[in-house]
Design brief:
Length: 236
């Protein structure tokens, strides 16, 4: 087990709020639109296809209630999505069914929810590693699911003084855009730590960029600095 039991319990309590675009998950809805555009451009460039996601095998690790998995499936990807919180998956399945979207949702972790030999063209690990107990093991397990020529895209929060100020004090206590207790600073992951874990599994980094979320405006955009939120893409 790499998922932290207390984190699973907390996300189970929040499961019913995932698809409320103005509720506790509002920042994820905003960020999701930015990342979805990024993924489409990245995949089109990497695989040399204007169809981007059509027919690609995608694994969304820590999928929550499917905020990313469902749009990816709508765009033509064959999506498998897993989450350790059972109520998240229940909410995801319910929403997908109501939307008429096909996603293979599974409860569990990489070691238990998938066949040992399964691999994917794209593996996403978004806002996950800051909630697990063993970061290198989680990144390694995700990286080993990337097929030859495939991609791993991961996002998290850097472990800096600035991230404590903006990611916890600002986001959870001042602006209240996230529930108090969403993050623990000691679990944040430095970009070099993520890169080291991915490289040990045979991946090379092809992109690293910072992301900024403006809580008052509820707007997100890419920036150069990675000292708070960042995204990294790796290729096999």
């Amino acid at each position: 087990m790499t998922a932290v039991p207390a984190e699973i319990a907390r996300f189970n309590r929040l499961a019913a709020t995932w698809w409320d675009a103005t509720g506790p998950m509002r920042p994820l809805h905003v960020i999701n639109r930015l990342r979805l555009d990024y993924l489409q451009q990245l995949l089109a460039t990497h695989f040399g296809s204007t169809r981007a996601l059509a027919g690609l095998r995608v694994l969304d690790v820590g999928c929550g209630a499917g905020l990313l998995a469902e749009p990816l499936a709508t765009l033509g990807a064959q999506v498998t999505a897993i989450d350790a919180a059972e109520k998240n998956i229940a909410a995801a399945r319910l929403h997908a069914e109501a939307s008429g979207v096909s996603v293979d949702y599974r409860v569990g972790e990489l070691s238990s929810a998938l066949a040992a030999d399964s691999c994917f063209d794209l593996v996403t690990l978004l806002e996950v590693v800051e909630h697990v107990d063993d970061v290198p093991a989680t990144i390694d397990a995700a990286a080993r699911r990337v097929a030859p020529g495939g991609l791993l895209v991961a996002s998290t929060i850097d472990r800096t003084a600035k991230s404590w100020l903006f990611g916890i004090v600002g986001a959870e206590y001042l602006f209240r855009v996230l529930p108090v207790g969403t993050h623990q600073w000691r679990r944040f992951v430095r970009p070099d730590e993520m890169q080291a874990a991915a490289q040990s599994a045979g991946l090379r980094r092809i992109d690293l960029r910072g992301m900024r979320y403006l809580p008052v405006l509820h707007r997100a955009d890419w920036i150069r600095g990675t000292s708070v939120n960042y995204l990294a893409a790796f290729a096999r």
